[in-house]
Each structure stands twice: as structure tokens, then as C-alpha cells.
Amino acid sequence: MISTPNGQSVVVDMLLLMHMIALGVGLMLFGWMFYLQRRARRQLSQALPLHTHSPAGKFHRLSNTRPTKWLAIRSVSPEAVKDALGLNHASPCSWSEGLVTSHAFFIGPRLNGWVIVTGMALPDPSEDVDECYVFLCTLSRKLGHLQYFHANTDTRHHAWARLDDGCVTRAFAWAGTTLWNQGVETLPEIEAGLKTPDYGDATANQADIEANVVKISKLASRWSLDPAGVRMTSIRESIGLAGESAMGESF
What we know:
Radius of gyration: 28 Å
Number of helices: 8
Distance between the termini: 97 Å
Oligomer: single chain
């Protein structure tokens, strides 16, 4: 047994060395785990264009993509929308893919009491405003309150509408001239600075009207939801339905 002062010094040195080694190993393991966690998060963000919630439960924006046309339908389930649209062969589809999909319709998950619908089959009032009117009224009779938004940044054509139980309460559509102007202008329209000239108004400034295109997102966020500003808490909640529709039979 070592009992000399030198022996005691050696024991202290050995204990100190062992402590330093243990501390170093612990720091290395912590650094390695931190690296793996960062890499896993980076790989997940690259694999999925969605952002999940943090451990603190913060909400994150899923996509800054805004479709050219979309519906916002209140107080219904995605399944009810699916049935109303007559969606055939519907399959799961992520929110980010759905906003740019080539499907006839994409029905998003229910968010804050709203269901967002996008797709190639949504009508364009600049092509046929009567068809758009019939489509929206028919769908509203099935689903109740719905809103329609159209904003083409290339042509500057745009439209928005609100309906309740098949009746138009407010609508405006423009494609070089006013195609549709119905109902009383709402406060959010006024606050967003939207210009809504009447039919055949030759005094309206075309540049001011075309500027509506970039303001419609503000109106949508006040009336219901702006698709590009949607936030969710998990990837699972971002899954919707996409498919084709027998439009001739349903409408």
C-alpha cells in the first residue's frame, strides 16, 4: 500500500487524469449527439418541403407557395368537400405538393375551421364568368359558406367572391374590364386598398386595378385563410386529398 507523500501525489494525479478523461469523453459524446441531431433535422427539411413543430410547440409555415385559384370553405370536413366535388380515386397528398398539383382538385386538411381547395378544375372567371358563377353557387348550396379567390400575376386577372347557401353576398372579377361586381364592398376590401370599378367604368385607372393581384392575399387572410401563410403543428396534419372529378355529373 502506498503511504508516502509521493505515492499520495501519484494517486491524486491519476484520479485527476481519470476525471479529465471522463469529462473529455462526455464532451465528445455530447458534441456527436448534437451533430447527429442537426444532420437529421437538415435531412428531414430537405426530404420534405414542410416544417414540423419544435419541441416548444411553436407553429411553422409550411409553404410560401400561393396557388392561382383557391376556395376556402367554412365549418365542413374534407370528406364532405370530397363528396360535394365528386372526387374520384382520391389519394393522400401533402399540402406543399397540393398547392402546385396538376390534379383536378386538392382538398387540404381542416385548419382553424376552414378547408382550402385548389386545383386545375376550379373555374376561371376570365374564361367564363357564368360558368364560375354556376360552379360556386352549386357548391355553396351543398356546403354552405365558401369563398373563392383568383389572382393571376401574369395576366393580372383576378377575382374574389363570398357565398352563403348558394347565394352570392359579395363578388368581384376583372380581366381587362369588370366582369362581375355584386354585393356591398366589405371593410377588409377597403382596408386592403382593392379597387372595384363598376361595369363599363371608363374613368377607372387600369394600373390601380391590376394592383389588386398582389393585395388579394391580404383580403384572404382577413376573410378566411391565405394559403401561403398557413401554419401547422405536424407533418401528419398537412396531408390532404387529391384526385379527379366527374364535373359534368356533379355540376
